[in-house]
Structures are given as C-alpha cells and as structure tokens.
Design goal:
four-stranded antiparallel β-sheet; 21% helix; 29% strand
Length: 308
C-alpha cells in the first residue's frame, strides 16, 4: 500500500488507519432525547386522564351503593345499601304551571293527579320510564324516547295488580308537550321502578269523530286478568283520549258512576274508583259549548265498547 505521493506506507500506520475507519463505521446513532421526552409527556397525560375518569366514575355511584341485576328482566339498577341522608325536594309546580326546561309540563287541573301522587312524583316516574325506554331502544331508524321536557303529565293514579301482573303500583300518562309532536306514553311503575310502558301516536284520521278515545286506553280501566272473583275492588281506573276544539265537555260513565273529564290542551282525562264489577267498557260522551252532544262512544265502531 502506498501514500498519496507514491511511496510505500508503513504497515503499522495502515493498520491504525483501518481500525480508525472501522470505529467510525460502528459509531452509535445519536440518542433521540426529544422523542423520548415527548413520549414521556404523552404517557403522563394519559395516566392523569385515566385517573380523572376513575374519579368521575366513583362520583357517579354514591358511597354505599351497589349494582343489582334483575334476572327477570335482564336489566341493571343501582340501589343504596343503607339509608341515605334525606334532601329537601324542590318545590313542585302546581297543575297548570309552566314546565321547567328540564322537566315535563304539569297537568291542567289538580284532579289529574290522584291517590296522593304529587307532580314531583309523577315527573320522576316519567323520567324513570324514559330511562327504561332508552335502555331498551334498539332501532336506530326510530327516534329515541326524548327528554322529560318533551312531555306533559296528563294523568297519574295507582294501579292494581292481578295474578298476571302481581303487585300494586302507579300509572303515569304523559303526552307531547304543547306545540310538539310525539308519542303518548302510559308508564307502569312498581316499587319506584319502571315495570313497563305503552307508546302510541294520536290518531290523525280526518274521518275520526270530535272525541277520540285512546286506542290503548283499556290498559288504564280494565283489569288485565279477570279471575272467577272478578275485579279486585275497589279498582282505580282512568280514561284518556284526544278532543277537537269544538268539544267543551266530556263525560265518562263507568261502574254506575259518571265523571267529568278534564280537558287539557286537546286531550281529555278522567278517573274514578269502581266499587262493583263493571259490565261494559266506560261510556264516553262529548258536548260542545252550547251543551249539544257531538259524540257518543256507543256509536263509535273504533271504540273498545262501541258497536260490533
């Protein structure tokens, strides 16, 4: 091997240069300090976010509460393991009052809430029912159940259990808030929990009469399973439906007594107590402002108790 000037190169110097070239080729790449710092900051933020989420989750479940699965319905609820300190309930609006932005509207008259049920309890029952519906809403093509403020309480009364559905409870009927379109709900509640619901849309048939009894209203006035002993008496019943603007009065006769229904923003609601076994469905009549009869359920072929 020769130098640049053509003279022979010393072997020791050649060896040193070759070793130096190899050492240069084996030099490690620089440590990516910036990347390591960025990764460390990201991991810290991730741990902080996870810890914060855990704190929020704990805050949502009160201390001393546990999840209980109802095997008969396959749903989960949270129940307190011990007594909790009572909190003052917010003052409930009276029937006819304006609804709050968060809650439902109140009924037009005090007689639409019976059996000691307050508006606050009826509103809470509706909220419980909507949560129950939301948990069972599976069809993305249909709208969800909405919020309590989308509804107005029409009627609330106790319900009587039977062999088919044991246990007394409460019915809460809610209709779309004034000026809104939506479903009518009949919520069944037992022991403070939603036990079932029925939803329907008011009949928009232009040929319908000025009074239109609810197509599923029998849920409120009929014992679901009649045994050999008949209805469990006394039996609280309800009757609901829609009315046209010309209707000024609606009466409902059931079990030998006649009740005057409340008229509430295009709906009617009546309730009473049976003390004897009924022989027929409630008999509904409607009158105009002059007192002339404009509707009789006996002539309504679409009604449960009408002509066959």
């Amino acid at each position: 091997m020769t130098n640049d000037d053509g003279r022979p190169e010393d072997a020791e110097r050649v060896l040193r240069r070759l070793l130096a070239d190899d050492a240069e080729g084996l030099r490690p790449t620089p440590v990516p300090y910036a990347a390591i710092l960025r990764q460390g900051r990201t991991e810290r933020r991730r741990r902080i976010a996870a810890a914060a989420a855990a704190v929020v989750a704990l805050a949502l479940v009160p201390a001393g509460a546990y999840a209980l699965t109802d095997l008969t319905r396959g749903e989960q609820r949270t129940e307190a393991a011990g007594p909790a300190p009572s909190a003052a309930a917010p003052s409930a609006p009276q029937p006819g009052a304006q609804s709050t932005p968060e809650g439902p509207g109140a009924p037009a008259t005090p007689g639409q809430l019976v059996d000691g049920i307050t508006f606050a309890q009826a509103a809470h029952g509706l909220e419980t029912c909507l949560e129950f519906r939301r948990a069972h809403h599976r069809d993305p093509r249909t709208p969800g159940p909405g919020r309590p403020s989308d509804y107005r309480i029409l009627l609330a009364h106790r319900s009587t259990g039977d062999d088919n559905a044991p246990g007394d409870g409460t019915y809460v009927v809610a209709v779309p808030a004034a000026g809104r379109q939506g479903e009518r709900l009949i919520c069944s509640l037992k022991d403070g929990r939603a036990d079932g619901f029925n939803a329907s849309t008011p009949d928009a048939d232009p040929a319908a009469g000025p009074v239109q009894p609810d197509i599923n209203g029998q849920k409120l006035y009929r014992q679901s399973l009649v045994t050999s002993t008949g209805y469990r008496l006394p039996f609280r019943w309800g009757a609901i439906g829609t009315v046209d603007a010309e209707v000024a009065k609606v009466t409902v006769s059931y079990g030998g007594r006649t009740e005057t229904a409340a008229l509430d923003h295009g709906w009617f609601a009546a309730t009473g107590v049976l003390t004897e076994q009924p022989q027929r469905a409630p008999h509904i009549k409607g009158y105009d402002a002059a007192g002339a009869q404009v509707y009789d359920s006996d002539d309504d072929r679409s009604y449960d108790g009408g002509p066959s």
